[in-house]
Amino acid sequence: MAVISSAVVIYNNSSPSTDTRNAIDIRFNDGMATRTVDNSLHLNNATHTTQEVSSYGWEFSIVNRTTGFLDQTMDLIHKFLNLVAPSFTFFSFVFLLPPIYFFNFFLSILRSVFSENLAGKVVVITGASSGIGEHLAYEYGRRGARLALTARREKSLQEIADRARDLGSPDVIVIRADVSKVDDCRRLVEETVNHFGRLDHLVNNAGINTVCMFEDAPPDMSLFKAIMDTNFWGSVYTTRFAVPHLKNSKGKIVVMSSAASWMNDPRTSVYNASKAALTAFFDTLRIELGSEVKITIVTPGFIESEITQGKFLQRDGNMEVQQDMRDVQVSSIPVGSASGCAQAIVNSASKGDRYLTQPSWFRMTYLWKLFFPELVEWSYRLSHFSRPGAPHQQAPSKKILDFTGLKNVVYPSSIQSPEIKTD
């Protein structure tokens, strides 16, 4: 039996009724009618254009028939896979997880023993003027790497560069750049390669945040666009220009994603999305680049930085410190040190690890989100929102922090002050 892919249904308007009983069903593939490339109809050994058919007082329509043999076969295949895939996956996990975990454990020991010697290597660090980026400069400097530090605050970069030299870096250059601008990203890579002659590590660290309910954002979405331009596109632009040089040196890329890519705190929807996009992009890029360039994706929890200090992008485009809103978002969760995080990142990059979550206990939050998503969402709504009509700063998450006095215990002293670096 032939598969019917489509048909022409012609109605004769001169007939008292134009319902389907008076319709002439003409199948394209049964020889009764065909349609040519100029959209004419060939009917009863005569060719008629669609305009002619209309002038005859007939109405016509193209009817797609998608219930053929091929479609029925595909439906059966999907039904089969729906039944087989879950059990196949379960038994695959049972048999494959133990040897894979053992192999990865053995591989991690080898990587620790034969980790990369960073002395003399050339490292670009974006967002190096504060927080994790600043301490990455110090950690790479201690290990003898040559550094290209980039951010928008040149004065802060110069101070960090001086300290990195004191800690052991043989050569440090400072490049003022805004990674949200593609030309700046091209320039910072070119200046680095022109100065050092090579590039070994690219650390995509630059990032900003905003605390804003989605419905309260400016209608032109400029606030959210700025987040994506810096957090996502800034890393993509810089990586695009750095990849040819990294392939020449068999180099590495370090990407600063976030645990926010799966623990979706309210009021930071686009920040969370930018970090999830980074993970998806660089997971894909790892496949494309293969063994030529290794990629380490870092997903920190709450780490000592200007973001956990409460520095957020405002509706007017300026950065301001809002520590009350910071308290609502972070609450009583312990904030890790930037220096410890930087040390763990450089260790992982030197070993060629694929992923790093710091502090490591934060990995458990992924399991909670995976297996109990409703519970996670309910807990956020319960803790992060105040009663209707009350200010956001009266959310239970902040009240708990204030009542217990935990801020002095779980927050490093560096983020308790509202003072931030300025040029």
UniProtKB/TrEMBL annotation:
Record Pfam families: adh_short
Molecular function terms from GO: 17-beta-hydroxysteroid dehydrogenase (NADP+) activity
GO CC, alphabetical: cytosol; membrane
Top-level lineage group: Eukaryota
TM ranges: 80-103
Alphabetical UniProt keywords: Lipid biosynthesis, Lipid metabolism, Membrane, NADP, Oxidoreductase, Signal-anchor, Steroid biosynthesis, Transmembrane, Transmembrane helix
Any GO BP: steroid biosynthetic process
Primary location: membrane
SUPFAM superfamilies noted in UniProt: NAD(P)-binding Rossmann-fold domains (SSF51735)
Residue ranges of every copy of the Ketoreductase domain listed in the record: 121-306
Cellular compartments annotated: Membrane
Gene3D superfamilies noted in UniProt: NAD(P)-binding Rossmann-like Domain (3.40.50.720)
Membrane topology recorded in Swiss-Prot or TrEMBL: Single-pass type II membrane protein
Alphabetical list of PANTHER family matching this protein: 11-BETA-HYDROXYSTEROID DEHYDROGENASE 1A-RELATED, RETINOL DEHYDROGENASE-RELATED
Similarity section: Belongs to the short-chain dehydrogenases/reductases (SDR) family.
Identification of the protein by name: Ketoreductase domain-containing protein
Native species: Gossypium aridum (American cotton)
